[in-house]
Amino acid sequence: MAISKREACFIGGEWVTSDQWMDVDDPATGQVIGRVPRLGRRETQQAIAIAARAMGAWANLTGKERARTLRRYYELIIDNQESLAALLTQEQGKPLTEALAEIIYAASFIEWFSEEAKRVYGDVIPGHAPDKRIIVLKQPIGVVAAITPWNFPAAMITRKIGPALAAGCSVIVKPAAQTPFTALALAELGAQAGLPNGVLNVLTGGAAEIGGALTASETVRKLSFTGSTEVGAKLYAQCAPTIKKLSLELGGNAPFIVCDDADLDAAVTGAIQSKFRNAGQTCVCANRIYAHEKIHDAFIEKLAVAVSALHVAPGCEPGSHIGPLIDERAVQKVREHIEDAVQKGARIVTGGAPHARGGRFFTPTVIAEVNQDMIVSREETFGPLAPVFRFRDDAEAITQANATPFGLAAYFYARDLGRVWRIAEQLEAGIIGVNTGLISTELAPFGGVKASGLGREGSKYGMDDFLEIKYVCMGI
Ligand code: NAD
């Protein structure tokens, strides 16, 4: 059975519609491509009850049985990768090659956690008295709520539902309003794989209403959120009265440091991959590039050549490197960041304006002579703008790199081994890319420090957030 664009939510194994709808558009054209139901508080409460009822039987299966279903789910995503990628590009805008890579990345979380489902080990601890034994059990935490952003419509979902389902939890996903069709397609494939009804549910609708009902519920024991720091902080507060466990994957403002001993060609390749993937709309995007004064001019020159060669076109067109931004507000934000920087003395090296194609397309841009007074030094641009700062020594670069409330990813290029260790240890971020601009994999723990979030996703650590530890004290 091929996947289709579903204009309905998926609750308890049923496709549910509503008399209220939300349109979804194609960012490349601005044309409406479909609509999804606008559900609210009441439907969310019903979905929570359904998810709670469904969880018992799922949690009672052996890890190996859950692993088998998740393995089928992984294979179905892989088998449908091309149609999933086409759907993703249509609603999100990224180039088809990137959408395909995202689908494979998304599937990798289901694959990894299908294997981890069999390895939820407890512990036996030496007793504290001759007649006592200490046993530690790990059990599924309960119903999980997952709220996800539009920039990675597939991977941000599977990174949450993979471990939740493997642990034996049931899940309610609230995808971003801009990209619900990928989420609904993933629900459909989960059902085809044999996930029992009610174990994986996808609700679209009013974010504050659905979020309000999920966070207020005593039945929902865990919220896993990926999105902006502003909304994350709000949800953190909303979860306090029910003492819910939280993971927050929030905004970033990644520094990208190019030291004087760096391989400049490699640094340019890394900067392009890190900065311009998804048109600069990734949370781990290099947002502030620091170039040592000795290599500053040579680096800028090479970077400008590589950036000018990026082809701006709709994601579905072959050869597209940079698709449209998600909406007009995003275009406006990039514009404002450039205007602010130029007003304060920055120089446009290449680009600098919306693209001639119009709509939501923006020309990939490099600006130089950037300093700490400019908005780009403080705020995530979330667009194809590479601001380059100049620095004199490592201490200055590290101080400036850490001068942000965020701490998701940080990158640097250097060859001296001692320097590599020192900088890696001193940068305040959850993820460090050394001589690489690509850091995401299901095998490694992903997450931030400071205002970039709480918890880690992926890897062996990714399961912990969906488990409770129970200590059994046994008298013998
Ligand atoms: P956003 O915070 O606006 O929205 C994220 C999700 O929260 C969406 O589903 C949205 O509908 C929902 N939401 C919004 N208001 C809500 C409310 N009051 N209650 C409940 N839910 C609510 O973020 P966005 O614009 O979709 O995504 C971009 C942001 O996400 C960027 O800051 C980016 O850095 C961050 N992000 C972080 C990671 C990470 O892993 N750290 C990954 C991707 C994106």
Can you tag this structure with a few keywords?
alpha/beta; 13 helices; 2 domains; Ald_DH_C; 476 residues; Aldehyde Dehydrogenase, Chain A, domain 1; binds nicotinamide-adenine-dinucleotide; globular; 7-stranded mixed β-sheet; single chain; 6-stranded mixed β-sheet; Ald_DH_CS_GLU; Aldehyde Dehydrogenase, Chain A, domain 2; succinate-semialdehyde dehydrogenase (NAD+) activity
Q: What is this entry, summarized?
A:
With 476 residues, this protein is α/β, with parallel strands linked by helices. The chain is built from 13 helices and 22 strands. The termini are far apart.
Distinct small molecules: nicotinamide-adenine-dinucleotide
Biggest sheet: strands side by side, in what order? 14-15-16-13-12-18-19
List unreliable stretches of 5+ residues. none
> Could you name the CATH topology of the largest domain?
Aldehyde Dehydrogenase, Chain A, domain 1
Query: Nearest-angstrom radius of gyration?
Result: 23 Å
Strand tally is 22
Helix percent band: 25-40%
Q: In whole angstroms, how far apart are the ends?
A: 56 Å
User: Which sheet architecture does the biggest sheet show?
Assistant: 7 strands, mixed
Bulk shape: globular
**Number of individual domains:** 2
Strand content: 15-25%
Number of helices: 13
CATH superfamily of the largest domain, please? Aldehyde Dehydrogenase, Chain A, domain 1
Look at the structure and give the CATH class of the largest domain.
Alpha Beta
The multimeric state of the shown protein is single chain
What integer is the average pLDDT? 97
CATH architecture tag of the largest domain: 3-Layer(aba) Sandwich
